[in-house]
Amino acid sequence: MLAENNLSVAEKLLETGLSNRTVIHKSYYSMYHAARSAVYVQMQLDVTRHRLLVDKFKKLLARNFGDETLAKQMNKWRSMRIKCDYDLGVEVAEDMCGYAISDAVKIVDTCKSLVEGF
């Protein structure tokens, strides 16, 4: 699964201290691929646009769990990923990477539970 592969790379990068920017990038893309799979399976929608995916994921979470928190976290990391990828002046602290990975784990696990039933 792409989500788990990206998450594994993010965790390894954080352990080795190679690139905090790439940790954010990979953490976000693990969220993206997990949410995309869940939205596809649960809503029969193949969403590739990032902002639209966050919106659909938010609706899916509200419908199934009554809570949009994970979608809001994903959107925060979507914005941070854009900054990390395109703004060379952005500094990324190591603790921020830990938070990104932690949020990615929660989102990937939640999406797995939404997909496994099908």
Please, could you describe this protein's structure?
- The chain is mainly α and 118 residues long.
- Helices cover 81% and strands 0% of the residues.
- The protein is built from five helices and no strands.
- Helix 2 (20-43) packs across helix 3.
- The longest helix has 24 residues, at 20-43.
- The radius of gyration is 14 Å and the shape is globular.
- The two termini are 16 Å apart.
Would you summarize the structure shown here?
By secondary structure, the protein is an all-alpha fold. Helix content is 81%, strand content 0%. The chain is built from 5 helices and no strands.
Indicate the mean pLDDT: 93
Q: Uncertain runs with pLDDT below 50, 5 residues or more?
A: none
Give the fraction of residues assigned to helices.
over 70%
Percent range for β-strand residues: under 5%
Elements, N to C (H/E)? HHHHH
Number of distinct beta strands? 0
**Count of helix runs:** 5
Q: Identify the overall geometry.
A: globular
In terms of quaternary structure, the protein is single chain
Radius of gyration: 14 Å
Structural class: mainly alpha
Main beta sheet, described?
none
Quote the distance from N terminus to C terminus: 16 Å
Please supply descriptive tags for the structure shown above.
118 residues; mainly alpha
SSE blueprint and pairings:
Layout lengths: L1 H15 L3 H24 L6 H16 L3 H18 L7 H23 L2
